[in-house]
Amino acid sequence: MEDYFAYTAKLFNPDEANAKPEALKGLRVLDFSHVIFGPIAARLLADYGAEVIKLELPFYGDLWRPATYWGKYWKHSNPIWHNITKNKYFLSVNLQLKESKELIYKMAEKADVVIENFAPGTADAWNIGYEKISKINPNIIFLSCSTYGQFGPMRYFPGWDLLAQGASGVLTLNGYPDTDIYYKLPDYVGDFVPGNFASLAVLMALYHRKKTGKGQYIDMAQTEGLMRMLYHYTYFSVTKEAIGRTGNTDPTMMPASIFKTADEKFLALACATAQQFGHFADAIGMPELASDPRFAETPERLKPENAKALTKIATDWIQSKSCADILKLADAKGFPAAEVADDYMIANEEWRRKRGSVVLFNDTVYGKLLIAGPSAQLSKTPSRTKWLARPLGYHNRLVLKKFLDLCEADIQELERKKVIGTFDDRPGLKPPVYYNLNEDPIYNYGKEVKK
Amino acid sequence: MSAKEAIYTRHGGKAGDRGKMLAEIMNAEGKPEVLDDVLVLDVSSANFAGIICASLLAEFGAEVIKIEPADGDPARQITPFGVMVQGVGVPFMFEGRNKRYLTLDVKNSEEDRKTFARLAAKAAVVIESFLPGEMDAWGIGYRQLSAANPGLVYVALSAYGQYTDKAKDSARMPDTDITSQAGSGLPAQMGAPPEDPEPLNWPLRGGMWAGWYISGLSAAFGATVALIHRQNTGEGQMVDVAGMDAYSSMVGMPATIGFTWEKARPRIGVLDFILYPYGHWKCKDGFVAIAAPRDHDFRALLKILGLWEQEDDWRYSSDRIPDILEQALHLHKIIEEKTVLYTADELVKMALNYSRKSARSKWRGGGVPIVMKLMTPEEAMSNKQWEVRKAFQEVEDEKLGKFIISANFVKMSESPPRVKWVSSEIGRDNDYVREKYLRD
After folding, report:
1. Chain B residues touching A188 at Cβ < 8 A
2. What is the least distance, in Å, from the CA of B284 to any CA of chain A?
3. Fewer CB within 10 Å of terminal CB in chain B, N or C?
4. pLDDT tens by residue, A326-347
5. Do A12 and B240 meet the contact criterion of CB atoms below 8 Å apart?
6. Of A321, A339, A357, which residue is a domain's last?
7. Which class is B39-254+390-437 in CATH?
8. Maximum CA pair distance of chain B?
9. Per-residue pLDDT tens digits for B303-349
10. Among positive and negative, which fits the CA dihedral A381, A383, A384, A385?
11. Structurally, what CATH architecture does the domain formed by B278-374 represent?
């Protein structure tokens, strides 16, 4: 039989991924959402082949377009926004005009999914909510994303990832006991995780619609998404005590913490089972620990007094070894360990590029940018990056001509009436200054392009 | 719409009582279950990412059979401080949703592997977390099972994935939450700045299973994409989730920032990289979370706190971002000097009163500063919002008694997820499974 890793290398070969079929091909999604929570739900569908049309206001655009780290732009774009909105079509229409609404309604007739994350009630007030769209297209799958949900006494409270972390209890779990400092989870996890939950719900609705023909309304509250991740509620209901903050030590395994190595690197090391602990005890040259009554059984090892003693043993050993030596032993003996990876390591480690965990993507407008791969690799219908984010209104012509059968004259009329529009001079909205849009066949879709 | 609800919006309540109507159509009772035609075998071991993936599919109605040896999945003992109820750990209780329990020892028994293969021939999804290549070596990997059942979706969870040289070299390394968090970049972004004393300035782990939950959710997402492809074409496939990808692949920032900056971000403590104010502050009786990052939100906050004289110094958002950490911390202190004078309730009320006027104003200058009392998980459980939305559910395990879980994580009008029962007993459904799936 062929070696397993030779077999899987062929099965998942990243070089062939772009030629493979797309699971969501042919689906059309109208994405009215902004910032991160809604857009990430829509992007996940685009990654698997859905046509996602992102709606923005002309000369204004998504709030997140200019929101870059420390004001640092990359080629006049927000580098992290590429990850949030890649693979989408960018249409910019002025929602205040009647003609704009009609364009949206026309698109809704043929759409499969609509996604929005305005403050609850807003989409309906603007007549682009579930109430209106489901009358135009009764089989629509309509996803509303919000911080607290579409019903309940707090429904009209606006929110961000921070508020969801604060309301679910996630925020108060990070930090050291007996200090007065908490830390929020970084990088807007409170948007990304619920965005993935929301997209999962859309997939389920699509599966259901295929079986029954029925669409539905989905109400995703980001706080409830975070709450799904906390067994802390059950712990409290069983023990009447709180887990609280435990610093760098995970109280569910032992040892399980972040340590400092002899060469001043940070390393996470954990033993979830008696077997893994046996491997670890062996690796540190203290095999007798595996039969020590304090440590042999997992429940004993987790008891606070034993855990403390074992953490001390682990700390002393790790302090005496280099990070590389420990990782080598972990691979050889079979216990979990990982160096704390930072941005630079994640961008540059060879295995991540080979796996497709990060992808050096060559874009027609922006050139090369390193972008994250999917968090699940699929062998037959893989996720892929087709293009990065685009300037505001970049796909106006393509969307209106290809999907709504408008002609060039119609579009010029819409432009004249300011129903559709594009970007102004602000970074985040406009194309890179060296890029000549007049020569771009997509931006000028259906028009003769001068070279 | 009550006066209280009117506070934050110009738009609520125009179409009758939308809230009441929605609460009714989102009721799960009697609704169809979307995955009621899907059989899932969860043979994962000592890995909650696998268990979580299985739970999510079970909540959407799949028949999920948890397969473990007679002494149980070691995951049963992975629990805070060793706390267990009759030998079952808390996380295992929390995730024991809508599942069947079958005893098979695929690791050691040739006979049980055959039984497993017979079940897999009828299954839509297999979830496993053995070391990469182990199932294959036992003759029950994707390669063998898919030959007999081409429609099979096979989800494998591990530390470094199922392919690449690195995956092969590190194939013996098991996957856990904290190593997944560390290897995929979360702790590097959390913790006090470098000037602070050790170990506070070390990278800090997320105080919940951020690694395992992200891996489990990603696995369920990948499996469902694969189920849609299967629904359309009859074809199955392999889904490969690596714990060392979890966080960085979900948020995407580490890769792109590492590439464009050619260095790693430093840790900046309680501040945020992009938005300010966006964090939490001490108040008289605890902590409040405050988000007022847009220019007009920030100005509104200054007005509320009586800090308008500061406006000129912090006029642009670029004045407030922490690229100069000292400067940002200075502003943080200025705000804290005011927040400590009030209780959380007072601060919330001050923000509400301001926002009521500004949200109803046609002028955009007003801003909507958001202030909330910071809640622990335990406090969150008594919030009226979640009672109305049935976000917490009291369940009863026939052996372990009653306890509370968070459930109904998304509301859907036609095919919502739900928790029908919880259970945990090893081998509880042996007869059921043999009768239903293994008679022929």
Report:
1. 251
2. 13
3. C
4. 999 999 999 999 999 999 999 9
5. yes
6. A339
7. alpha beta
8. 81
9. 999 999 999 999 888 889 888 999 999 999 999 999 999 999 999 99
10. positive
11. 2-Layer Sandwich (3.30)
